[in-house]
Specification:
With about 180 residues, the protein is mainly alpha-helical. It is about 80% helix and about 0% strand. The longest helix has about 40 residues. The radius of gyration is 38 Å and the shape is rod-shaped.
Length: about 180
C-alpha cells in the first residue's frame, strides 16, 4: 500500500461508502442511546439554583442590617395578623367614609392627616424596627396595637366632627329657605 499510494491517491471511494462503514461499526460496536433530557434537567437545575441564590443575595443586600428591617404584627403570629387586619380594615373604612362626605372642610382633614396621623405613623414605623430587633416582645406588640386603636379613635372623632358640622350647615340652610 505504501508503494502504490500515489496510484490510488486520486480515487474516491464508492458512493455510500461512509454510510456502509458506519453501519458496520454500529453492528460491531453498538452505542447506548443516551437521553439528552438528563443533561437538560441538570442545566435547568443549575440555572434555577443560580437564580434563587442571586435573588436571596439581592434580598439580603436590599434589606440592610437588622435595625433597618421592619416587622408588622402579621409577622409575629396569626392572632396578631387578625388584629392587624381588623384595625386596618376599620381604619380604611373610616377614611373612605371621610372621603365620601360632601362639602367637608379640606383644611380640617389635612391638619388631621399631617399632625396626629403622621406622628402615629412615624411612631408605628419605629416600633416595627424595634420589633425586628426584639421579635415577640409583648410591650412593643401592645404599643403597636395601641397605635392602631389611637389612629382609629382619631379618625372616628374627626368623622363625627365633620358629620356634626355638616348637620349644622344643613340645618342653617334649611332655616334660610323658609
Amino acid at each position: 500500500m505504501k508503494n502504490n499510494f500515489k496510484e490510488h491517491d486520486g480515487f474516491e471511494p464508492n458512493d455510500g461508502h461512509l454510510e456502509r462503514f458506519e453501519a458496520k461499526l454500529e453492528q460491531r460496536f453498538p452505542q447506548k442511546k443516551t437521553t439528552k433530557l438528563s443533561a437538560v434537567l441538570k442545566i435547568a437545575a443549575i440555572a434555577v439554583l443560580a437564580l434563587m441564590s442571586g435573588l436571596w443575595i439581592f434580598d439580603q443586600i436590599t434589606e440592610g442590617p437588622a435595625a433597618a428591617r421592619q416587622l408588622s404584627l402579621s409577622d409575629v403570629s396569626v392572632e396578631y395578623a387578625e388584629v392587624e387586619m381588623y384595625f386596618t380594615n376599620n381604619i380604611n373604612k373610616k377614611i373612605n367614609e371621610l372621603n365620601t362626605i360632601d362639602d367637608i372642610d379640606i383644611e380640617l382633614t389635612e391638619i388631621m392627616e399631617e399632625s396626629e396621623l403622621a406622628s402615629l405613623d412615624s411612631l408605628y414605623q419605629e416600633l416595627q424596627q424595634e420589633l425586628a430587633l426584639n421579635p415577640g416582645d409583648e410591650r412593643i406588640i401592645d404599643a403597636m396595637i395601641n397605635i392602631y386603636q389611637s389612629k382609629l379613635h382619631v379618625i372616628s372623632n374627626v368623622l363625627e366632627e365633620l358629620k356634626r358640622i355638616k348637620n349644622i350647615k344643613t340645618q342653617s340652610h334649611e332655616n334660610y329657605e323658609i
